[in-house]
Write a structure and sequence with these properties.
This protein has 13 helices and 16 strands. The chain is an alpha/beta fold. It has 2 domains: 2-201 and 385-410, Vaccinia Virus protein VP39 (Rossmann fold, 3-Layer(aba) Sandwich); 218-356, no CATH class. It is globular and about 55 Å long.
Length: 414
Amino acid sequence: MILDLFAGPGGWSRALHVLGARDVGLEWDQWACKTRAASGQLTIRTDVAMYPTSPFIGRTRGVIASPPCQAWSMAGKRLGLVDQPLVHAAVQDLAVGHDTRERLLAACRDERSLLAAEPMRYLHALNTVGEPDWVAMEEVPDVLPLWKQYAAVLRTWGFSVWCGILNSADFGVPQTRRRAILLASRVRSAQPPTPTHSQLAEPESLFGPGRDRWVSMAETLGWGATDRPVPTVCAGGGPGGGPEPFPSGSRKTLSDARERGTWMPRPDVAALKPGRQEAGRAARHGAPEARATEAVRWSWSLRSNNQANATVRPLSEPAGTLFFGHRANECVWVAEAASAPSTDTDTHTVPEPIRITAREAGLLQTFPANYPWAGNKSQQFSQIGNAVPPLLAGHLLAPHLGVTLNPDDFTLAA
């Protein structure tokens, strides 16, 4: 079997399914388990830290692990960095079969920090019978020093190991999501996958075709699908939302707008210049009084609550790393400096943000559009934000499975 620790809603599992394999996932969160069940993925709902290793000994071909990242993430308090010496101590002890987790956990500032040491408990138990053949692990970039410690141990057990930082956008994911990756194998040389995309498209050379340009957020969400120019809005996941382009003024989602054929953001959207605020509001609803006066090129900024230093991206680039759960995500429009409109609010109307749906958030993680997310909006977003992008996982797993990855098999609209 392939053992998937901290399996979440199925990012690794989705990749395995596309590649013709499947895993057994260990996961505690009830909504992630419901999502996995609806996706037909085999799951044991359990606390990974409490589950015995004995059922897997003598039966495990590969081990996958994506420990919870909240304790280490830039989006949280990052107490995992404070606890890092304790986590390293736990890994060192577990690597020789010495379980000191209870004592070390009592000293941790964040009880989730020590979960990053759990894979070593399973790996040590499996190594007693010469298993597994391969290992793949993923976490936020700050965990890389811990992965290097794992790598040192695995090499003493006969593994070839590579660990480093990969950018998901380099592998066709419409999101610049950087992650610390560890790949290890007993049967082949462990190497990172070859990037398929880059920030700028590369021409074909004597060595083969060049890399494609990064996949943009706009392309993934189907922006620019109609010929009717309307005031543009952008994806955002917080309490915000925008009424345009709906005459009723009711809050709608990007999907609603696209299905009605009334939504088309574009880089050269014209700024509206009504005579007063009332005219501006009418213009946002497509009233005939609206008149385009000067071309304004818009970029967007994905913000968490009132975050002041959010990344600003032009329409042609991927999304930044998405954070979901208790932190609201709102994407707002920012006029490019070269053609920025006046700051006079009576002169220019700035497009309002709009909510992003779970379906659209899943697309930005390369899950299929019909993926069966369970739970309410917050629970779904929490699963999506914590998941491994299936397309990235596919690139990491294909060599271990001895198959060739076809990115077309991860068709986003499927």
